[in-house]
Structures are given as structure tokens and as C-alpha cells.
Design a protein that fits this description.
VOC_core; Glyas_Bleomycin-R_OHBP_Dase; VOC family protein; single chain; GlyoxalaseI/FosfomycinResist
Length: 187
Amino acid sequence: MSANEKYQLQGINHLALVCADMQRTIDFYSGVLGMPLIKTIELPGDMGQHFFFDCGGGNCIAFFWLATAPDGVPGVSAPAGLPDEGELNSATGSMNHVAFSVPPEKFDEYYARFKAEGVKVSHILNHDDSKYGVSREPHEGTFVRSFYFTGPDGELLEFACWTKTFTEADVVHEPRTAADRKVPVSS
């Protein structure tokens, strides 16, 4: 396997998918597959939730439960733009984005390199547990720093670095279910 000479990628930080029922997702990923639930996030404005599961090797698989997410439709594969532009919605069962794990000490360098190369990137998002879920500057409550960009087919991608070790106190939100959605559920 050849080494990446341009970026010191460290694998997948998390793969974020969209589910219709967070409780059912927990039952499968933690109950059936044995993955520990390590972080729960309630999104601002009653938009939904974002829960993370440890899938081993320092990698995570995560799921959005989005109150207004439409049912999955072939061809609806990713959000229409970048999260800092207000775009986050994608269909149940779709891939929302792929986050590549990068070293925290290289994060700002990589962001500057993308901008210098003319790649359209989001603002840096310092994800925290505040009302809006992000802050302008990193602080003690920041748990991951990231920026987003799109691939050639519009797939949403992210460079992310964890800045905090999670504890049981980070799993505090009651999972939403299909009954909580704000769109008609097809039968």
C-alpha cells in the first residue's frame, strides 16, 4: 500500500448516515453489533440528533436522526451544499458525509492548504454542546474540529479531529423515533 505524501490521513473519523428511528439504530448497532454508544448530540432548533458509535480502531460510525428527513429515494445521496450554508438534510438510509480523521496539530495547516489550492471549503466548525452546536473559536467544551468540502459528484466530505475524550456523561439524549418525524412516513 502506498503512503499519502500530501496529507497525513489517519483513516475514517466517522461515517455519518441518516436513520428514521434512533432507538432502532441503537438497538442494532449497540445491541446486535456490540458497538458502544459514545456520544449523543441534540441538534439546535429541534432539527434532530447525531449519535456516535465506536466501531473499533479509533473509528466511529454515526447516525443523524433528522426531523424533516425525507424517506430514502434512489439518487438522493447527499446534502445539496455545505453545513455552514445551512445544508444538512439527506434522505433516510443515505450517506450524509464521510469524515476523514486528521491529526489535530495538522488541522489548521490542512484547512489553509485547501483554501490555497482553491478548494471550496466550509468555515471551520468547532463542534461543542452549546445551543447552536458550534463556536467560532475552539474552547474547553469543543469535542471535534472540522471543515467540509464536496467530492466530484457532490458527495459531502469532511476533515475532522477529535479534541476531547468522551465519557458516559456525553450520552445524555433520549433517542428519537419514527413517530417523532415531521414528514409523512410512507407505508
